[in-house]
Amino acid sequence: MISDIFENNRKWVAACLAEDPHYFDRLSRGQSPGFLFIGCADSRVPANQIMGLEPGDVFVHRNVANVVPNTDINVHACIQYAVDALKVQHIVVCGHYGCGGVKAAMQSQDLGLLNNWLREIRDVYRLHADELDAIADEDARYRRLIELNVIEQCVNVIKTSWVQRRYRAEGMPRVHGWVYDIQNGLLRDLEVPFDKILDRIRQIYHLD
Ligand code: CO
Known about the structure:
This protein is an alpha/beta fold. The chain has helices spanning 2-19, 23-28, 47-51, 73-85, 100-105, 113-127, 129-133, 138-158, 161-170, 194-205, and strands at 35-40, 58-63, 90-97, 174-181, 187-189. The protein has two domains: 1-30, no CATH class; 31-205, Beta-carbonic Anhydrase, Chain A, CATH 3.40.1050. A five-stranded mixed β-sheet has the order 2-1-3-4-5. The N and C termini lie far apart (50 Å). Residues 40, 42, 65, 96, 99-101 line the site of cobalt (II) ion.
């Protein structure tokens, strides 16, 4: 119910102020989050809660299946602002097991406009088809595609001029790939080799 939301909101404000009377004064002065989180729009993957962070701690961008398409001005505006203006130290691409977007991309089906969006994931499949086709178990293949999608979207973040320029000037931000497991609530670090990817892609996508 919509009315419940407003009641919840008033209770939340009261609880915050009971803990710290200056809570909203402090937040209204500005933000300097340490992280940019790029995650799936799935309602079960709330960025702040799974990271144990408070308002002001993380700048968040979410879309279907946590992708970073070259032509998506929305995600790239978020990355540029987070890197150049907010000076985040870490960029996290966070996928999740059980992702409906990745599942849909594995089906041979016409999904309308979603075809164009999920093409990003079908491209990831094509890049890693040898590895994925060798996995006989469909669920294991699905989980691996979720992981490979995160890694490829990290590569897309590292391709941007903002990340390359600031990293070379200041040694930040670093890019991380994580997967959230909806079944147990745990985050897993895929240990994406940031330095290796940066060196490799600068041979082609050198922009700074
Ligand atoms: Co998802």
